[in-house]
Write a structure and sequence with these properties.
heterodimer, A: alpha/beta, Rossmann fold, eight-stranded mixed beta sheet, disordered N terminus, B: FAD/NAD(P)-binding domain, six-stranded mixed beta sheet, 21 strands, 30% strand, methyltransferase (chain A)
Amino acid sequence: MTETRAARPVTVDPREIGKFARMAERWWDPEGEMKPLHALNPVRVAYLRDRIAAHFGHAADSGNLSPLEGVSILDAGCGGGLLAEPLARLGARVTGIDAASETIKAAKAHAERQGLEIDYRRTTAEELADSGARFDAVLAMEIVEHVAELDSFLCACGDMVRPGGVCVVATLNRTMKSLLMAKIGAEYVLGWLPPGTHDWRKFVRPSEAAAALRPAGLRVREVKGVAFDPLRGDWHLSGDTDVNYMLLAEKP
Amino acid sequence: MTAQASHHSEECIDAEVVIVGGGLVGATLAGVLASSGIETVLIDREDPDAVLQAAFDGRASAIAAGSRHMLEAIGLWPEAAAAAQPILDIRVTDGRVGRGPSALSLHYDHREVGEPLGHIVANQEMRKAQHRFLPTLDRLLHLAPMTVDRVIRRPGGVEARLGDGRRVRARLCCACDGRGSRLRQDAGIRTTQWTYPQAGVVATLEHEKPHRGVAYEHFLPSGPFAMLPMVDEPPGTHRSSIVWTERRDLAQKAVKLSDRAFGQEVLRRFGTSLGDVRPVGPRFTYPLSGLHAERYIDRRLALVGDAAHGIHPIAGQGLNLGFRDVAALAECIVDARRLGQDIGTKDVLVRYQRWRRPDNLMLVAATDSLNRLFSNNFGPLRVARDLGLGAVNQIGPLKRLFMRHAMGTVGDLPRLIEGRPL
């Protein structure tokens, strides 16, 4: 491990690295603050793996452990890399962007320890789109409900999809059910999320996400619900899109 | 991460899983993982050439149907099939030395379940099959003979320091290093251990009449006496492997008897249904003891097979339990890997432990009580045993359930044991 590290130019203060490694551990503790995202990860990684592999004609059968080989993916709002790392292990060339430089440093520290090559950058979707970056797949997972300008953010995401590519948006629908379950239920009753994590008024209806992607030339192909099974304690795909959902759009 | 790149690296080898211990369980785990696409390094103390050239050493194992399903699924079974004798019938009887088996006996016929109940394979042949199979896997790096100086397990990964100065970096380390597992001790995992007042005598016999695929388990006051059918080798001869539990002092004497006297002792216990018998190859004796680890996992470490549990050989299940560990752990690893997860994290390991530990604990307890129930000469208990065996024989569904247990095809089964792909 020491040899490979020494070969790279040292640009960060080691104390900083230690700080971000600790922060990464918070992101990566399955029982910690990010527990809800960890719980959500299997269903969303499986969905992305199957849909993206199928879209690009890759074998997604059980024998292929790298079904995303060679696919370039942008994870917009990557956080600590909870999604970027699994996608990289499945063979994708992943770029992760986040607006917070501390988060990006934490994500980098974790990926390096895992021996994964992920291109993490502190930037915004708009800046990256303006630079001309293009990807086979652009992901906006559990992020649009936190951005200031939904239309501008999703349009930038759509612009970065290469012709023939896909965009996946995962978020919370703005319905009475989501107000009860995702906001009041998850934050106040179940205590899954710290109160104030979400502002229900910023939740996004599938039609609104579709409208924001349209100017970039994307067409919605599928909207899938994601539901929690309280007995099994896990998440699964469902026909009910009233609370959590994933939307898949293609650029012809 | 690619096998090609790592094979040429002198200093540091990158893999996903590093397996320490290349015995039957470790080599099978390596075969299962590598054939599922997981980059695997197997570190084995023994020289493969020595294994391939070794003469028959007299020991054999029962491969339950469920275990065979797994070996078939990964493509290893064809390598072993020619040396594997199918068990078509198991006859369980109760008896006393010098008399024939009791009239009431339990009789398991493979026609009731539709496939052989299991196979008997000489350990040496199984090892050879593995050594022919492993080099065909391009995701496997088999380092043998090779020692491990130490294994450093960190939150972010494991590193094995090899005897030749090289290092192997991986996400997970699997301890297949046997009963005395150094990795288990280094992890501070405690064990429950116990000893039996018996020793096991293991030998191979040549007998006059063909065995017709019948395995016998004869319960004697000193412990069970098993006669397990082997393939006719050389052709025209008939062989069976015996596992004979006996008081320790007597076991020590038995292995030193002349061939003729040893054959006589066997006949006194087994009867003459296979005609005259004589031992071939070396005879072994080993003390019988049990062991169970208080936990199977630690940071980036999983105990597999004998490193986690050792049971009384009464039911011939030790190796099969190890194979079930292999199938379950491989399933946990591959399922996690398909979701792009780090395969050495706690949630993956916890799933493995929750799956296997209760199952093994049950068999550890069951074989222990089976031994206590049968290893005595207490009159009323003998009658009850005979009636019990006879009763089981009369009740079809109960008997088929017992058979499926012995075949390893009941319970919460890993996909490979059910004969499905991973």
